[in-house]
């Protein structure tokens, strides 16, 4: 310092030594201020010092600092009594040189009596402005004081800019840590979802993730049931609403903030919930999860919605997979049941045909895709008699097969009684009408053949007409009988007795043949069936049925029919 004073004394006149000393003290003071400001990168600490240093040194009554944020100047710090100061003023792109003339700043300066405005400039960039009130002694600022304040503003601008950049980095780091935490949560939840195919367990694990990974204490799960969403209390912390109407899907179709737009949303908000998370698959919302704020947050950010949407998507995929798995199990169970029913049904049909001298008998059941209600039977009776039967229960599937089994059991019981054939049909009708739904009934053809004299007594209860093909090719339809079995109460039936001639053929069938369609939608029909049987009437009945089966497969172009195809043939040798 001594050498510097000597140098300055020699360079300048002696009367300027006091000025040099004052300048050195000022530089020393600014240096100390710079060290003070740069010692901390805490923005509030810097702003406090930027205001307090000049206010204390120059006895200034009040001060204000505004910092540039986008197109606004925002109040960052203030000291002294300042009333009615706006939080921000609009300040679009403006040069540093013109900032002090900005109309809104000029107006603010007059309103709150802050006559001195100094730009805070860092690297030719406007950081903000420093506004100071008058000195307590009302004296104007000297040139030296203004130089000092300008230097202070320059030093402060750099410190403020560094502190703000550090704050931005810290904010970005916190946000990055939050994103890493959210990503870890998504990965953890995804892995947990992979270990279960139970829908309730998936919802429970999603709730656990929200509780433990995100520290959310307020949550409620509503699951779709019919036309409403019902609270799952065991998966909820608390709730002010037990049921949500289906219309909630229109107000909250995606993950979003709750707003007091409807009475339901208002009640949810009052219950402490802030976010609605619908679990949507395609166009169907299967559940809602409502959550409150975590303990360490005062609010959610818009970017949080993407995180919750990702969680919801993971849950929806897991729920869909679980549902597909359950559906596959159900399908597998049904297929096993259908297979078992088909096996039982086939066991009810004749395993082998009886060998009867003078007669040929053959029958076949070609199954459809499911269990059906077709039935045919050969029942040996006393006194050298043989009963033949063919029937078709309405509908398909297991119910039709069960009715077919009941029909077989009842017919086997009644046919052995010494009662006329029409009375047997009347008893069957009474039994089925009393014990089956109104839309379930049976078409049935039953005949009893006296083997020695070839007398054949039959009743046709609404079944497709069996045909009797004589040796010369003449075809006769067997139509005598009555109404379908089980369709109407008190139905009566008539029988007819005919004599089967040598080489005559009795051919019975179900509508699975005549209604069989090809790729063009054309039905096989009765005419084709009659012509085929007539053409091949002289062949053994086993060959006739085998040829007809091949013909039907060629006609339909498939080896699986939409309806059961059942055939029964009896030929006199």
What is the secondary structure topology, with strand pairs?
Elements: H1 2-11, H2 17-39, H3 43-58, E1 63-69, E2 72-79, E3 88-90, H4 103-111, E4 116-122, E5 125-132, H5 143-194, H6 199-212, E6 219-225, E7 228-231, E8 243-245, H7 248-251, E9 256-257, H8 263-270, E10 275-281, E11 284-291, H9 304-348, E12 359-366, E13 374-381, E14 385-393, H10 397-415, H11 421-435, E15 442-450, E16 455-461, E17 467-469, E18 475-477, E19 481-482, E20 496-499, E21 505-509, H12 511-514, H13 525-535, H14 541-556, E22 565-572
Parallel strand pairs: 16-19
Antiparallel strand pairs: 1-2, 1-5, 2-3, 4-5, 6-7, 6-11, 7-8, 9-10, 10-11, 12-22, 13-14, 14-15, 15-16, 16-20, 17-18, 17-21, 21-22
Helix pairs in contact: 2-3, 2-5, 3-5, 5-6, 5-9, 6-9, 9-10, 10-11
Structure explained in plain terms:
- The chain is α+β, with helices and mostly antiparallel strands.
- It folds into three domains: 2-167, 2-Layer Sandwich (Beta-Lactamase), CATH 3.30.450.40; 196-324, GAF domain (Beta-Lactamase, 2-Layer Sandwich), CATH 3.30.450.40; 349-572, PPM-type phosphatase domain (Phosphatase 2c, domain 1, 4-Layer Sandwich), CATH 3.60.40.10.
- Helices cover 43% and strands 23% of the residues.
- The chain contains 14 helices and 22 strands.
- It has helices at residues 2-11, 17-39, 43-58, 103-111, 143-194, 199-212, 248-251, 263-270, 304-348, 397-415, 421-435, 511-514, 525-535, 541-556, and strands spanning 63-69, 72-79, 88-90, 116-122, 125-132, 219-225, 228-231, 243-245, 256-257, 275-281, 284-291, 359-366, 374-381, 385-393, 442-450, 455-461, 467-469, 475-477, 481-482, 496-499, 505-509, 565-572.
- The strands form four sheets. Strands 8-7-6-11-10-9 form a six-stranded antiparallel sheet, covered by helices on one side. Strands 13, 14, 15, 16, 19 and 20 form a six-stranded mixed sheet that branches.
- A hairpin with a 4-residue loop joins strand 15 (442-450) and strand 16.
- Helix 2 (17-39) runs parallel beside helix 5 and helix 6 packs antiparallel against helix 9 (304-348).
- The longest helix has 52 residues, at 143-194.
- The mean pLDDT is 85.
